Amino acid sequence: MLRVGVTGGIGSGKSTVSHRLREHGAVVVDADQVARDVVEPGQPALARIREHFGDAVIREDGSLDRPGLAALVFPDPAQLRVLEAITGPAIAERVAGLRSSAPRASVTVFDMPLLVERGLWVREHLVVVVDAEVETRIRRLVEQRGLDETDARHRIAAQASDEQRRAAADVVLDNNGSPEDLVAAVDHLWDTRIAPWNDNLVRGERSRR
Ligand code: ATP
Fold it and tell me: Alpha-carbon distance 20 to 187, whole Å?
């Protein structure tokens, strides 16, 4: 299995990259999805969030009020650390499970916003960082996702800097241009780096058997 980590700041274009890699045949593990799964009603992490942050972050139907919780934690680094201490281990455990159950011959993509912050990038064969100017990302998040601008800035401030991410990268994909440019860069990456490497790995696996 070839393990590819895809990371980048909020709104950088990670989902666009992972989606295209899936179209090329990769198995994608989406850490944002896992982060949502571990706080579903009935999950231990949700009970701990309720204990710490109170009933105000729980909706009437028992589900987590994600925007309400985000409004509490993103402006306050200490509260964000508490939340991460609750959800982090549950997320790590689930990702580890998905990692071990991925087909051996696959290219598995770990789409993880906090790959660099958590030091997890060291375990991947190839670390792909999606990069776009902060102001461009904020504009896209506000215009296309309807995010509040202050909220977007708080979230960016809570993440690693572009320099820190670039330092961990094997490949930087520039997403300051059009979505089509980004997709073309992913296709090039697949053809030149990922597919040949994976073919070699699979051949090596076969010859060891
Ligand atoms: P998040 O961190 O929130 O998960 P992300 O890094 O996965 O975001 P995307 O969801 O791929 O980023 O992109 C963020 C937003 O910007 C989306 O609405 C997407 O459609 C848009 N977008 C991505 N790339 C471009 C581009 N090159 N030009 C214009 N809009 C773009």
Answer: 8
- CATH numbers and ranges of domains, the chain: 2-201 (3.40.50.300)
In the structure, which protein residues have their CB atom closer than 6 angstroms to any atom of ligand 1? Answer: 8, 10-16, 32, 113, 140, 144-145, 175, 177-179, 182
Which residues does the chain have with pLDDT short of 50? none
pTM, two decimals, is: 0.89
Dist. CA 173–CA 9, nearest whole Å = 12
Q: H/E element holding 6? A: strand 2-8
Whether the CB-CB separation of 14 and 113 falls below 8 Å is answered with yes
CA 195 to chain centre: 22
Query: What pLDDT, on the 0 to 100 scale, is given for residue 209?
Result: 65
